[in-house]
Amino acid sequence: MSQQAPLSSVNDFVVRFANVNGSGSASANELFARAVLRHGVPVSPRNIFPSNIQGLPTWYEVRVTEAGYLGARGGGTDLMVAMNPQTWDKDVAGIVPGGYLFYDSTKPMPSTKFRDDITVIGVPLTAITNSTYSDPRQRQLFKNIIYLGALSALLDMDPKLIEQLIGEQYKGKEKLLSSNVHALHLGRDWALQNLKCPIGLRIRKADKVGDRIFIEGNNAAALGAVYGGATVCAWYPITPSSSLAEAFTSHCKKLRHDPETGQAKYAIVQAEDELASIGMVVGASWNGARAFTTTSGPGVSLMTEFIGLSYFAEIPAVIMNVQRAGPSTGMPTRTQQCDLIACAYASHGDTKHVLLFPEDPAEAFEFAAVAFDLAERLQTTIFLMLDLDIGMNQRLCRPLKWDDAKQYDRGKVMTAEMLEEGRDFGRYLDVDGDGIPFRTYPGTHPTEGSYFTRGTSRDRYARYSEEGAVYADNVQRLLRKFQTAQDMVPRPLQANAAKPTKYGVIYFGSTAPAMDEAIGLLESRGHHLDRLRIRAFPFHSSVASFIAEHDFVYVVEQNRDAQLRQLIVNENGIDPVRLVPILHYDGTPITARFIADQIGNHQDHIKVTPLRKAVS
Amino acid sequence: MTYIAKPKFQHPGIKKNTLGYSHRDYEGKISTLCAGCGHDSITASIIEACFELSIEPHRVAKISGIGCSSKTPDYFLGNSHGFNTVHGRMPSVLTGANLANRELIYLGVSGDGDSASIGFGQFAHAIRRGVNMAYIVENNGVYGLTKGQFSATADRGSKSKKGVTNTDNAIDLVGIALQLGATYVARSFSGDKKQLVPIIAGAIQHKGAAFIDVVSPCIAFNNHAGSTKSFDYVREHNDAVNRLDVLTGRDPIEIDQDPGTVQIVEQHDGSRLALRKIDADYDPHDRLGAMTFLQKHAAQGQIVTGLLYVDPEADDLHSHLNTVERPLNRLEAADLCPGQAALDKINASLR
Ligand SMILES: Cc1ncc(C[n+]2csc(CCOP(=O)(O)OP(=O)(O)O)c2C)c(N)n1
Ligand code: SF4
């Protein structure tokens, strides 16, 4: 291999930490990301972990990006912090030419273990740790802080900012605070004395973070459930959704206890399985509480019978589905957007369900809260479609906002007073022509307004009936209701290219940050595209008009079978030829480079052989 | 509630409870079950128990799964909300409903197929959680609605109407309920109203998970092959008639039994049940004793009936979760939403 000039870049590179699961590295690595943020430089980190508790490899990748690109960059690692002997070969191979390898040089390694087109930085971490600490757990934990200290010197970071962060983390725990700061300086001082600092990669103070917050999507969605007024949560553990329910639990503990009695204004049940969790949601919602469950693909599969009941018996339900790679157990700790069809048409018979697609934690918060309004307004299941990439990674996003004047939309509920006035109550009467009937809560009135809820066919007054016409009338109304939903769900957002263009691109959810960056890459290649970010199903009419306004439209998604494209074709009667699928489904988050390459190549191809030549 | 019961013309001599309600106020739709089905007798006992307790019917939420037994909530308490959920999953729906509004009375109605097979897990977990409910299994040993397959409570060695012998062991739901910590456990017989009505009334008043197993004969599918009164026999001899229409109606089986005695009850198919009513001096506060008693008599081929166990000090899921007294479904934005000020603090902690 030829010698290569070492990489040189300020505030724009990718650091990857390779660790052993269970070694306590996660908090040190996160500290690194947050320290970069404190320099005013945006970061976009990603957890890459196996579905295993201890011993197997994990990686944490931090993209340092002054330009603020929050998608995964892809294309190799600029600085590899190789702390896991198990993955050494793969980690070393993943470094870009000219990149840097940081390793524990306590034990000598044969030269064949290195590459000559990278810069190798050895720090005797184990030796430093062992000479300072005798307790094995301390050795393990502080080794992580020591490498962080060394990195801070190598990357020219301000140690004060890191100390400040440690201070906030261990506020009130003086001993832990000082020992962490000590470890930080052990590493930093060793590097300053023994190595050439800084290297070609540097963090320089900038002012590019602003008031943005750094939060995981699952945590934000959990807060959305608190703010949206959810009082009942029934869930069953499954990666990557468990942290959502756990975050809801801890927020409720802080925010939802009656100050006088200490009693809880919520009920959280870890159910025995997903059948029970959705059953509890349906029961609680039937009885007028705001209820939700959290799950991922396999859980959705189990819940489908109840989802059909929610649809047909018209009972609100909120399901927060943090998608992972399927089918079956698939890749439990890898990301995909692969449950669209399973959720949109969940359960047997003719069903259609509302899906919401947040792009980042801020929208996850907003959509989680709005899901409860929608569920009660539409009296049906609402899916909040997150994925592992949003759910389990911290992202920079705008601060969370709430309008204190906001009241919950409890939907069409007939009260005892309304019944007393003599209002005609037919549980499945379409009084307003929007397909949405009135419901009553159990216990409303001694003699009026009670009805029998069932998943079996019934007439407008909830009386059991298998008359064909009665059934058809009911399912037609349900379609009408679904059309009503179109204008109630978050609308697609359109952004036009700087120049007029015949081409468009449709995308959704966690693809958004990569798409923002890809548009720039494509522009630099001379390709201009208008873009439409879909935020919900059913699709707003602007989706069809966007497609009609362009010669053809790329549909970018993270699954094998082009599920969003299928839904658009199926629901809007669009000619499939006009929708070009761009698909990424290896379980890693989609990158701007991937999108730009795929669309760019296609665009180049069109320019050579135009599709739209007259043939007459 | 500020609402007074509807004024309704009734015979002045009709029996009324302390609310001024008569039996009719506790009735529901007309049953569509086979005439003589044990489930109808249980319906009558539920009506009687609610009447005697002077319960406001609309304060009851009646929730069931799927099966003939699960249809019965339509046939009582017409002024209360009912919910026919999905097969076997009544317990989770009831649990959710109970969490949403702790002020209502929760009556769960299920079958042995519903609770001992597809819903066995949900049955167990609702009991284990101590959901405040009266959970009634109308136990006929068969799948009625799907026409006669064995359920998991069918005794080993018993024969289906098709002559198939059951080779699997039976699940005793009462034994399991005791094991899982139910705080009110009883078994009764659909035909023994004298015993069943107070048992149901007790379960409704009990705070915590109350479970009642009610032996309830199915006239359609527990009749043996070769019987001239069997479903198949009648069908074979009457081609023109619709399957359900030819079921011969019978009077429900009724018994009157003294405590401490064993009574042999003959079912429609001629099979016999040995029901042992527990003694007057039986101690229902001893869980372990109840389990031993049950096992001992089961070994003698006897089905023990009566209130087997009760913990008068029991608490329920709401006490375990320490939820507020006010029903969760009545909390509004002002109670639930911490507001922008709290969010500002959270935002600040995330920078
Ligand atoms: C998921 C599902 N599987 C199967 C059925 C069919 N099914 C309806 S009722 C029933 C059994 C009912 O038996 P049981 O609960 O004992 O009630 P019974 O009719 O005997 O009172 C079955 C299997 C169903 N409705 N749903
Ligand atoms: S089939 Fe059996 S359980 Fe069902 S209604 Fe008839 S007698 Fe009752």
From TrEMBL, chain A:
CDD domains in UniProt: TPP_PYR_PFOR_IOR-alpha_like (cd07034)
Keywords: Oxidoreductase
Every Pyruvate/ketoisovalerate oxidoreductase catalytic domain range: 22-188
Family matches, as Pfam families: POR, POR_N
Domain Pyruvate flavodoxin/ferredoxin oxidoreductase pyrimidine binding: 224-391
Record-given protein name: 2-oxoacid:acceptor oxidoreductase subunit alpha
Organism for this UniProt entry: Bradyrhizobium ontarionense
UniProtKB/TrEMBL annotation, chain B:
Keyword Glycoprotein: no
Key words of the record: Oxidoreductase
Keyword Glycosyltransferase belongs to the record: no
Thiamine pyrophosphate enzyme TPP-binding domain segment(s): 66-214
InterPro entries, alphabetized: 2-oxoacid:Fd_oxidoreductase, THDP-binding, TPP_enzyme_TPP-bd
Protein name: 2-oxoacid:ferredoxin oxidoreductase subunit beta
Upper classification of the organism: Bacteria, Pseudomonadati, Pseudomonadota, Alphaproteobacteria, Hyphomicrobiales
